[in-house]
Amino acid sequence: MTYLVDIEAFHGPLDLLLFLIEKNELDIYDIPIAFITDQYLQYLQTTGEFDLEKMGEFLIMTTYLLNLKSRLLLPRTNPSQSEDEEEQIDPREELVQKLLEYRRYKEAGQQLQQRELGLTERVYYRQAKGEPDRDEVLVVDLAALVRAYRNVMRRLPVPEPEAIIPEGDVNVSDKMMEILEILVQQKGKISFRQLFANISRRREGLALFLALLELIRLQKVKAQQNSPWEDIQLEMW
Amino acid sequence: MRDEIKAAIEAILFMRGERVGADELVEILDIPLLELRDIMRELIGEYYQPGRGLQIMPVDDGYLMCTKSEYSEILARSVQPVKRRLSQAALETLALIAYRQPITRAEIEKIRGVKVERVMANLMERGLIEEVGVKDVVGKPILYGTTQEFLRLYGLTSLKDLPPLEEE
Amino acid sequence: MRDEIKAAIEAILFMRGERVGADELVEILDIPLLELRDIMRELIGEYYQPGRGLQIMPVDDGYLMCTKSEYSEILARSVQPVKRRLSQAALETLALIAYRQPITRAEIEKIRGVKVERVMANLMERGLIEEVGVKDVVGKPILYGTTQEFLRLYGLTSLKDLPPLEEE
Question: Which CATH architecture has domain C88-161?
Fold first, then answer.
């Protein structure tokens, strides 16, 4: 039976990954990438509705994991590496560091909460009430005012689409064609984020993503990321 | 044990900084009311000593910790002006009014997407914005603008002095 | 005389409810710094007695009056109902800012792996974080830090009081 996972319960892809690692009692320093990637994808596939902005973050992690998985599977191709330079950096190292760092602050946040609730020994300040009136000086900053205005303007709601098109099933092979067409228009190159920029529906986003994975598998499209967490560049082979 | 209870009462009265009811103290400390009264008598006496700047006062069947009145003069000297900043919500609203004045509350709410009644009341109280007229549409809504005080505070000689916004 | 000064210090620390600098006390009381330090040593010792629920702590070359930590449990029971709890996401972000301040939004997002704009607006609104400057790199991004209200809410006497982060 399919069940729905509330992805909103996870505060981002790192949180989900940590959850999976703990749930499966894995060693964070020796993560079985293939296994964790499968689990991660499974979670995303069984998720309920969630907002697009957040999905983007989860998808970027997906591509990162898949990339990591393939790097671990592929034999070393660099012939210039001499035999005794065995001690290469584990490609997982960066992910491990990320997870550890994230976990540290996640725990620190929980500790703060414990303190607030008085579950950890703490001191209490006086809750200043009924003070003799203290003079108040308003500290202002013109730059902050201008920034505030820009903020408001940037957040202006995007007009809703006039009509809601019923959600037909999006075809992955159509999407594959679409990606290839876009790539041709863009002279063979587009970034991952640009490709997903105009996606407004979740199913469409997933179809596009699956189509992209398929194209990569068929070696029609090449995905390259210069450094982890950076936008991924897509190119035609 | 009695020392412990006294210390706890002291801590509670201090933290709360306002009258705490005898009934509430009884409940928090889990002691009989008579015992509380007895302890409070003792505690009040201890605070009465010279060398103490605080006092505990019985108020309305409760207790309040405050400073002794002898020290009001020295306390007045120690009052530091509090530096306050506008909240983000207030800042955004003020920015909108500054750049778009005259503007009605409904127009602001439409742009910011939230109610701004309280924020605007606060800005008015601080003398940063004021009513400047009514808009000539149905319902004659009030138009708001910034004040002289706004200019003074931000060091502007006139509204033309507001930094230009680059077009986006 | 000495009793008078002690009482005045007690009253000042109580009224202010936050750290008061030694320099400020010296000015208000009009006594030499050495004398202040001497009196403070004595006063701190007196508060140290059992039967006292308060303490005076030296903090960053100043002094803070607060409750003794032994009473946190009983005080937690007497705290007035607080406003809405912070979400887990807000707590993580707040912890990051507390430990890494000053820090930019982009740096936070890099570590947390998600956008934090809305969460940070919320923390600002509650007065737990504030802008503390700009980073001297391209784009001059804003640096954020925690506020006095943050220390108060979490019962920290200063940032040095933050529990050490778990080592890797």
Answer: Orthogonal Bundle (1.10)
C112 in reach of chain A (CB within 8 A): yes
Domain spans of chain A, in order of start: 1-76+89-120, 131-236
Sequence spans of domains, chain C: 2-78, 88-161
Give me the helices (H) in C49-134, please. Answer: 72-78, 88-100, 105-112, 117-125
ipTM of predicted assembly, 2 dp: 0.70
Give, as one character, the DSSP assignment of residue A7. G
Q: How long a stretch of residues is chain A?
A: 237
Which residue from A minimizes the CA distance to B156? Answer: A142
Contact A149 B165 (CB under 8 A): yes
| B window 40-79, beta carbon within 8 A of A | 75-76, 79
- Per residue in B133-150, pLDDT (tens digit) is 999 988 899 999 999 989
Give A189-217 pLDDT, tens digit per residue.
888 888 888 777 777 788 888 888 888 87
CA distance B164 to C152: 39
Chain A nearest C-alpha distance from B136 (Å): 25
Give the architecture (CATH level 2) of C2-78: Orthogonal Bundle (1.10)
